Amino acid sequence: KMRSLAPGIKLITSFSRDSWYRFFILLLTFVFYTTYHLSRKPISIIKLHRNCSNVIHPADLNITDNDTWCDWAPFDQNNYQNLFGVLDNCFLVAYAIGMFFSGIFGERLPLRYYLSSGMILSGIFTALFGLGFYWQIHSLWYYCLVQALNGLVQTTGWPAVVACVGNWFGKGKRGFIMGIWNSHTSVGNILGSLIAGVYVSSAWGLSFIVPGIIIAAAGVICFLFLVESKQEQKGNKNKDFVARRVVRLSFIFYLPIPSNHRSKYHPVIFAHRVVFILQGVVEFSLCLLFAKLVSYTFLYWLPLYIANVAHFDPKKAGDLSTLFDVGGIVGGILAGLISDYSGGRATTCCAMLIIAAPMVSMLLWCGALVNGPYALITTAVSADLGTHECLRGNSRALSTVTAIIDGTGSIGAAVGPLLAGLISPTGWNNVFYMLIAADVLACLLLSRLVYKEVRGWCGYTTRLRG
Length: 466
Hints:
Helices cover 74% and strands 0% of the residues. The chain is mainly alpha-helical. The longest helix has 30 residues, at 281-310.
């Protein structure tokens, strides 16, 4: 008589090979994008400009200014908030510009090579920022250049990981699956805060070098193990590059398609335009701009706000700021679940943003209500639009659609911290008013899509014209 299999083995063998691949890809891309955010976070933790008069200084040190001796030049002057704002913007502006091109490269290059090279380069530039501590570099230009280059290579991550997950998962429970998966953003921010917090008061260089090593190591793992789709993309590599570029420009700028390319490419361009206009790429992109403005202002300025207002030491302020990200994990999953159940992506985003407006100063709730729509737009919505049925046979359009949406959102990510740096000297209350205004604008931009979804629920159908 044969003995029955152990329950654990039964469970493992009950899943198909395809299911294991899906789980493996979900786990790998989760880890990869966690490391991207883990390497971005330290800059907000070392921003904690201290009052050095409370710090015991070494006996052999000749001190000229009792308040700034322990701060790192050139960030030891009264304009340190503006200088940190410049650093943030070097990264974020480069990231926003790079994102619009990243989708185009993501379509043309194998995602495994593209993602792994991006992660290794991100690791190098993140570590170079930290090495400024050991090399005694006090030039603002060095840190600006490293941040800008890091911003450019970090654009490799998002379009690539969303394209991978979109290729492997169907549309049914995409919001819920991607809601859980998108917690990598918050997990990365939390781990980045905790790792940077360990070294912030002793050797801040390690706050960057350790995350740099982690993301570079993840890049090697990506090169060894990533499978980008069920069938690795074949063919289409030798198409005429000039023809594709002409057609792509005509799509983006709504120019007439040259007659010699029209018959071959017109259906694809028409499909792109249909998705672009009817499915709300523009509205979701602009909504994300304001949602990211709020989220990134918190990401970059929250530790400094806590340190200044609550007078916590750097490590405690960094740890407490992770509450916003804990809320973000819950919010992303909740937004995905509600939108899958209701079928209303735009309505879910709008409702959460409306509730978020009066709660900007409550870290946990605001994190959930702002990061929920942000997570939904950058994952499930991008994947829905990029794999729309009228783009069938052109799945790599997912990479471009993702890049367009996230690239537009990244403009907000660049503007938010810059405005916070300019407004914060006039009082932190004014920063919160700015965040509330951005939140309200994000809601208003979705009003057409919400109206459309509500009409759908009430049994109305949109009549096609022409």
